[in-house]
Amino acid sequence: MGAFFIASHGADARSRTLDAAHRARGFALVQKIAVGGHTLFQYRKLDGHGGIFADLADGSFAFLVGQLIYRGRIGEDALRHYCLDLAQEAVHKDRVIGQFALLLGSDNTLRLFTDPMGFYQVYLDAEAGIASSSFWAMLELLNGVSIDATGIYQYAWNGTTFGGRTFVKEIRRLPPDAEVIVSERMAIRQRPIPPASPTAPITSLGELVDIHSARLRGLFSDLANGFNGQLRVSFSGGYDSRLILAGLRAAGLRPALFVYGREGDSDVEVARQVAAGEGLALDVVDKESLAGAAALSSRRQELDFIRFDGWKVDGIFDDGSDAADRQSRHDDGGVPLNGSLGEIYRNFFYIPDRPMPLRSVVDSFFSAYAPAACTERFSARSYADSLIHVFQEALGTQTLRVARSQVERLYPLVRGRYWAGRDVNLNLRFGRMLFPFMHPQLIADTAEIPIALKNHGRLEAQLIERLAPSLAAYPSSYGYRFADPPPLRHRARSWLTLFRPPALRRHAYRLRFARRRAFPAYLAPSHLACFMDMEMPYMRRFFHLERLHDPDVFNRVATLEYLFQRYNAHE
User: Fold this and answer.
1) b/e burial code for range 282-306 (CB count within 10 A of at least 16 → b)
2) What would the pLDDT profile of 32-45 be if each residue is shown by its tens digit?
3) Taking the model in full, what pTM does it have?
4) 158, HSE (Cβ side, Cα atoms, 13 Å)
5) Most-buried pick from 43, 104, 391, 454 (CB within 10 A)?
6) CB 567 within 8 A of CB 139
7) 410 backbone dihedrals φ, ψ, rounded to 5°
8) What are phi and psi of 73, to 5 degrees?
């Protein structure tokens, strides 16, 4: 399914308007069902797929939004078997694949919850009685919009917001361990989550390769059952797309590849060698060529505002190539695979292997901000505290100093859930798509893998070689084959990052953007003036706009201004 929204009967007029707007933008209505004091609207994806609905044997019904593969099944068949096993408390957890929201209902009550790790994002205002997979739908249904200042700074500097917070006070993100109950009123309650069974840490590289290659084989085998002949891999010269291809080849599949870049780019050259050697189709995508005459079209930009659900991690303003590319991935029923979260097998944060304060995690990885570009409303301490609270919530701890393995857990639980998760929602609006590494059966225990085995891609290279030995023998964009140990020059560059102290990392962004970078044409005042008052009265309360030297940050700030002007936001 491409989208859903639930609204109380008190919002019927806005619901009708919003329904018409969805259908006018290419989201076909599948179901409209009254439940208690609310109405549920379900829509297909932009490529025409989705809209999965099932009447169940006990008289109840089920909707699915997002993507689900269960026990090798897809579509309505997967939904029925998953719901049956849920009712019997007999779910095969290692056979659940996909990011989704599930809605289970009867005549008077509806339950709504997401995939086991909460990667698929659902927004709600329980008091107003509205919930949706779409942020734009929430904005359209609300009576009024007010500004969350902390959410503004989180989004501007990170490309997303964290925890339950958004940059609109009324709109909250459903926690991964909660569900929505809809009857005459809407309420949120905690879902019972069984505690994880403690496992002894494994330190042998060989044993780790045995365990994780077996998990990968199982997951890709289920994908093979559902999508043989339709899969397309977003390929590069790096580890994660190579591991996806290795998993598919181990399952007997020959997917098509597509790579972003131009002739001569290292990713393109590596992809050509792999495709030629393995006999696979390859499409080289130069995104700049996709913009065409619509690059500065205000009509196209308005359409993309809806297709991209009001905001995305790099800002809503662009030249049109992003939407064109995402649509093209689904031509002829194609199902693309994306390597997000593949760094569960590597040292993502590249910080020393020792316990550390959570504030050092903020300094090391979440401090890409420029205080001089913020007004007096910005507090570096409050900003850091808001992130530390999210870290503690994700880890289930109140301590301010954590073990190195707990820092590793923050990669899927924070970076994956809130940054990659937003892109998951957007991609699943366009069509069917798979994110193989974003599953608990693969993520389990990866935080406990010794850092020394994650450094320089050591474990991931071994997994590639175990699943598909020929793929490890091709060059990579790192300048060496994954079948070979990383050369000294590569390891030396990594160590320079590893030993850079958090305080120095905190200043790296400010030094990098001490001077203004060139802005693309779609961020020029003449173009943005088609959509907003260029005095930017909202964002001037939070930023010194002339000091925003990073075009991506300025794009996000312009996105916020556009939204707040469009919906007459207040504080």
Assistant:
1) bebbeeeebbeebbbbeebbebbbb
2) 999 989 999 999 99
3) 0.95
4) 26
5) 43
6) yes
7) -65, -20
8) -100, 155
